[in-house]
Structure formats: structure tokens, C-alpha cells
């Protein structure tokens, strides 16, 4: 049974999106349906050091995630040039998806809190496209231990 909802909730079908990646490809969430779980992370801002730490850790653990049957997708609310500079600065093994209008942020209910603080989120979406893990926050220091927690969660899906 598909529980298709507009907003992302645990147990709901994750809202699909297609975004341009820093490698020039157009990547859709449905590209992974039936193939792999997806770890999805929304970067708060390029200046957020906690987000940068988390994305760097996801990069270092990328092979572990792949071996556990998960792809890592990271979304940044910037255009391609800023996203490339960000990805190159961290030397990521995966592309960053560009959401300059933050339309996908909006789709996942990550509007700015009090119009000031960008909300951010980590999700695990299973092979069927269902949200199995979801953590939204405006306080990015939660991301400092998040990579290991996400990896443990992905392992529990197999």
C-alpha cells in the first residue's frame, strides 16, 4: 500500500524530486526505487560548520553506506557554482544536488523558522520509497553524531 502524502512523515512515501547535481546529471529520488535505500540530507547553509562536518563524515563513510545498500544524497539550497565549490572543498565522493529556489526544502517542510533560521533534515528512505527515519531541526549541532546513527539505521533495514 502506498501512503502518498504531500509532506514527509515516517511511514509515508517520500515526495519525489528531480534536481541538477554538481556532476551535471539530473537526479531524481525515484531513480533509486527498488534499487537502494537513500540517506537524504539537507544542508542548512554553506556557512554551517556542523552541516559541513556531517557532510564530510558522510563522504568518509560513503563506501560503508554503499555496502549497506544505501545511496547518499545531499541537497544544498544554492546554484550549481556554489554547490560545486562546496563539494570540491570537501572532496566528496558523491555529487551535491542543487535546489537554488529551495523548492525541495519546501516540499519536505524545511522552511525558514521565524524567517531567520533555515530548517535542515536527515532522512532514510527505503527501497520502496517510504520514509523510515526523519529528523528535522533548526539546531545543527545534532548533526555532529548523525552519520553513525544513520549508518546504524541503514544496517537495521537489511
For the record, the CATH architecture stands as 3-Layer(aba) Sandwich
The shape is globular
Alpha-carbon Rg, integer:
14 Å
User: Number of domains in the coordinates?
Assistant: 1
Low-confidence stretches are 1-6
Overall pLDDT score: 86
- The name of the CATH topology is Glutaredoxin
For the record, give the distance between the C-alpha atoms at the N and C termini, rounded to a whole number: 20 Å
Structural class category: alpha+beta
How big a fraction of the residues is strand?
25-35%
Find the count of extended strands (DSSP E, 2+ residues): 9
Sketch the topology as an H/E string, one letter per element.
Answer: EEEHHEHEHEEEEH
Keyword list:
158 residues; 7-stranded mixed β-sheet; single chain; Glutaredoxin; alpha+beta; globular
Task: Break the fold down into its secondary structure elements and pairings.
Layout: E1 18-21, E2 26-28, E3 37-42, H1 49-60, H2 62-67, E4 70-76, H3 80-90, E5 96-98, H4 103-107, E6 112-113, E7 117-118, E8 120-125, E9 131-137, H5 146-157
Parallel strand pairs: 3-4, 4-5
Antiparallel strand pairs: 1-2, 1-5, 3-8, 6-7, 8-9
